[in-house]
Amino acid sequence: MSFLIGQNMTGGYGGADILHGCTIGVEKGEIAVIVGPNGAGKSTAMKAVFGMLSIHKGEVLLEGEDITHLSPQDRVKAGMGFVPQTSNIFTSMSVEENLEMGAFIRKDDISETLNQVFDLFPILKEKRRQPAGQLSGGQRQQVAVGRALMTQPKVLMLDEPTAGVSPIVMDELFDRIIDVAKSGIAILMVEQNAKQALNIADKGYVLVQGANRYTDTGQALLEDPDVRRAFLGG
Amino acid sequence: MDFLNSITLLGNFIIVPGLVYGSQLALGALGVTLIYGILRFSNFAHGETMAVGSMVTILATWGLQSLGVSISPLPTALLALPIGIIAAILLCLTTDKIVYRFYRRQRAAPVTLLIASLGVMFFYSGLTRFVVGPGDINFFDGTRFIIRAREFKQMTGLDEGLAIKTTHGITIIITLIIVAALFYFLNRTKTGKSMRAYSDNRDLALLSGINPDRVVLIVWIITAILATIAGTLYGLDKSFKPFTFLQLLLPIFAAAIVGGIGNPLGAITGGFVIAFSEISITYAYRKFLTYNLPESWEPDGLVQLLSTDYKFAVSFVILVVVLLVRPTGIFRGQSV
Lengths: 234, 336
Known about the structure:
Radius of gyration of chain B: 21 Å
Strand order of the largest sheet of chain B: 1-2
Oligomer: heterodimer
Largest sheet of chain A: 6 strands, mixed
Distance between the termini of chain A: 33 Å
Number of strands of chain A: 10
Shape of chain A: globular
Strand content of chain B: under 5%
CATH superfamily of the domain at 1-79 and 190-234 in chain A: P-loop containing nucleotide triphosphate hydrolases
Strand content of chain A: 15-25%
CATH architecture of the domain at 1-79 and 190-234 in chain A: 3-Layer(aba) Sandwich
């Protein structure tokens, strides 16, 4: 049994089902990556795990506990962090305020977590007083990830964290994500840059039309000739 | 000497009234801008909220006066203000519960909420007229002036006087205190920051565990406080006439939009921009020019750009120009 698992999920945004018996799971300290063609339901699967859409079949378990019926807010309280793909920062607020808002539900002292985030992303410490909306794309993503880390989550979910950033920044972001995983947090992410993402993944899920097509370690998927031909461009 | 006289003249007829009227507009516009930023609709009932708040303040003032309570030289209304504020808060929260919450749950378009607020406006305005009638009420007591024109002339030896009324001083000081407190709240406290976060990115605020009901509750409380204070200060300064609050809606919205709607700093700036434009365009400059020009150039007319009857046209023109040229306003609020 995985640390976090969405089992056999079937559901959609209200109309036709997008997910058809999809299963996604991740272990503590590991990175799981969801890849697949456009419209495969990658983000939808992630949102289903986070409770942002209703699934009428299947269940979501965190540490063996059924959280299928919790709202996203309650899942944050249960120890899940989510970084949306777009609009994932408060643009008019300073970097530090963004991080403070990330920790809104915490009643204890957050300064230690704040320092940990600043250690992980030193550039944010330098720009802590700047409005987050004035930062570059890569820095904004760091703010977004930092904001989600402020609740000290056990699971961090990232929806295409490298969308729209340069290859160099992408590598840098992936390095930081590996650092986060090493600190014992389970990471589940959706990625367009399938090759690079599978490279750092402990586990990879290839989704097609809302269902699991291939599931294996990242390395094995990269080496699988079928996966290479169909999804990774040879 | 002529120059000093002319400056005093401007001080008396433009600068002091502009600062006072600007403060009143700024307080009103802050309420409008907060509602727009957080609840995402233009609250047309804001002017009438001011009316109801000041009406209750007036009733409380009369009550206090009949009990013989007085804080002379300050007006008794200041003591009655908290009662007006509490009434306005209760009114706003009740309205939200009965009217706005329904549309919020439906995720109604902003224009639907705007029309709903128009209905609320008519209800409030009827309520005010029902309770105290449509007439003019003067509820100012205490000392009238801080500096009288005659005293100023004696002190300085100038021909022109500068009169500062008690209400002028009170308006400016209270505005400073309220604005400082509001900015401290929004920028330094966790609750205030969570309100800015909610206004900035509602979905992310929900993801961060910010409770939307609490944010809505607090924004109505703040709005009611601002509206009651703005209305009472305006009523103390001029007099309380229920219909003026409908007229004030235009300059208040103009101020909020000119500054950048949703941006509190913009609302304050906008308030002063509108106030000074209105006053300086409708002022008759003949005397000022007479002081400064050679005798042969003395103007015959009043040198008044626009009659005071048309002062609302000034806000309207500024509003139209801003919407055409820079719809986000001076401080880049949300585009309307």
